[in-house]
Amino acid sequence: METALHAPRSLDYTPAYVLAGGGNPIAGFETGSATLRALYKPGSSKAEAAGYAIVSGFDEVLQEAISVSAPLSIVNRPQQPDHDAEWWRRWLAAVRDFTMAICDAYWIAPSGTSYIDADALQLRMAASVVEAMRWAACDRFSPDDALWDRLASVFARSADAESSVVGGDVRGVGAQYLRAIAYYSGNLDQLELETAIALMHVIDRLLPFLELSRKKTAALQYQVVPGKQSMPMRSATEQQAGAWYFSAVAADEVLARFQSELERGAVPTALGALPLAVALDAVLTLRRYWGDEPPVRRRRRYSQDAKIEVARGLEDCVAVVDGGAPKLPRHWQALDFSQSGLHIWADRDPKRAWPDIGELLGIHFVDGVGWQLGVVRRLRMWPSSADLGVELVARRPSLVELDDGRAPVKGILCDEIRKGEAVRVVVPSQVEFTSGNVALRHGSSAHSLCRLDVERVERDYRICTFQVL
User: Fold this and answer.
1) CA distance 175 to 156
2) Per-residue pLDDT reduced to its tens digit, 95-122
3) Angle between helical axes of 53-69 and 118-138 (0-180°, round to 10)
4) N or C: which terminus of the chain carries fewer CB neighbours within 10 A?
């Protein structure tokens, strides 16, 4: 008699099983990407044999695979394992590559090999572009002109292109174009992963209240001209031939209600299981970008073409402020500056990894004197370079020692010491001052400080604020 132990086993090679990765979603997404890349190559007989069947199979389980493994979700689910920041960076890179592999496969698969209705196939192709766009943006990659051109080409062939208004409440290619513009307007590449995911969930819920119109009004903020200017840009002052204009006026009314509920401590039913603080952050971000007066630069920028040396991370910043040298110096370029920050162009890095938002940088102008301290506030990546927006937190940083009665701690002083004024000090992230009063030694001088409640905590450092007594 055949027992269960010796019974024949069937191997599960379905897309859902592959993406599960045996409990490791990163491995699942990487395997899915490798499978699609191997099958779908231009002119390949494998692509002709696979047609749209394989890529559609992976596409159909994509959202579920992302939802169950993402750091947060709009639906209730089991508690996620505790992963560190590096694991989530690898997860995001794997999701980005997998969604791009799906998108590329749809474009490579030979036409006429689909069992899917033509309109449904066009909708899937459009949706695959939007998925690739949004996860690339979450991973700090720059907008891809080729992807926007793909989306515009599908839109131009659709019935929606003949309309005068495209609403997000009607399922179709036009709604996908609208969704892509909405994600673009939310500046996903400037947000932390959890906030970016929450913001995308909020946009998805608001899609019925968004529209693309051929008629320009004062409230419209972005425009596209399919076939000519596929990527969104700020609306010009005059009506442009062939242009479509993005409007979020009705959505802002819904966002105002969401904000009111969240500020009362209740997550709106439409936002499901999103954590309250993250949901509120996403709602406020969208209201800021979709408001009548979107964010503008507050300080004038001045063009510059200067070579700079850069130190990355707290340890190297302490070393250079103390007169030493960074372990791995970077030689980049400052393109412009303002009173509060720098625009930096990075074309190579010894670690082959660009600084992330929130990272601490030491900056030295090659033709100048001393080091400045900055924090990365904006990052946009290309295959071999990166564009950084850096907030300057100290123009003349100096090394100090802080003591709250336990072991002294080295820190970087960001401000001049003046009695009664506040000063900021950068210390390792694990350092917490238990006493309200802290002694500061700066060279040969000593000062008494009172710890304030204002702090900014990042990955490897925190910026503490004290009042000089």
Assistant:
1) 13
2) 999 999 999 999 998 765 556 678 888 9
3) 40
4) N
